[in-house]
Amino acid sequence: MMIGVDEIEVVVGHRERTTLRVGDMFLKVDSDPARLDVEVEAMARAPIPTAEVLWHKPSVLALAALPGTALGILGEPSPASPAAWAAAGTAVRRLHDAPLPPWPGKNQDAIAAHLDTECDWLAANDVLPADLVARNRRIAEAAFRPFTPVFIHGDLQLTHVFVDGDEVTGVLDWSEAAPGDALYDLAILTLGHEEHLTDVVAGYGTGVDLDVVRAWWSVRSLSAARWLIEHGFDPDSPGCEFEVLRSQ
């Protein structure tokens, strides 16, 4: 029995992983213990604020709550200031300038092959018009070019970046961290919030090819759609992945 806890909140839950809030503690339960191992190691190596690890056992990770609030939610206007978005860009640059983690990142050929499989599924099942899928697949091609790998977060959704005023207080959910393309992180951070891309780039600095950022928006939105649908999420909600594809 837990003492002093009014309720348990399910923050996110699906077949692969579930995150619960218990008072000021978050419990992450993952079907793949290796993902949590990566998360703990990545947070230890990251040169930016992360949540405090309270304890870690196979398949379960307990984290302290971060101060502040998330940059926003996909599909809703962000309550954060332009300066807060710029601070997020600065934090991402510090991460990208850090030494690479020792484990491998995702293979670009595998990412492209998965993208093609998902595009075929979207068109064949009439989830999206074939011409919309084809147009975004052409846009996505710009992401598949030579690049120098950096230490990326790998799932830098705006809900994972917490700020207090104009300061970044922490970044959550590091299970996809690995060597990878810096512009992928910037794309995921600004997905559905193109209006803040300029702010993020102002904080991040040089080396940002906006066409590649937009290409990663298409890659992400096309590749994630089936997973989102099968796990109870709606990529056709206002401001979400399908709207991103239509706006490209």
TrEMBL record:
<feature type="domain" description="Aminoglycoside phosphotransferase">
    <location>
        <begin position="24"/>
        <end position="207"/>
    </location>
</feature>
<protein>
    <submittedName>
        <fullName>Aminoglycoside phosphotransferase</fullName>
    </submittedName>
</protein>
<dbReference type="InterPro" id="IPR002575">
    <property type="entry name" value="Aminoglycoside_PTrfase"/>
</dbReference>
<dbReference type="InterPro" id="IPR051678">
    <property type="entry name" value="AGP_Transferase"/>
</dbReference>
<dbReference type="InterPro" id="IPR011009">
    <property type="entry name" value="Kinase-like_dom_sf"/>
</dbReference>
<dbReference type="Pfam" id="PF01636">
    <property type="entry name" value="APH"/>
</dbReference>
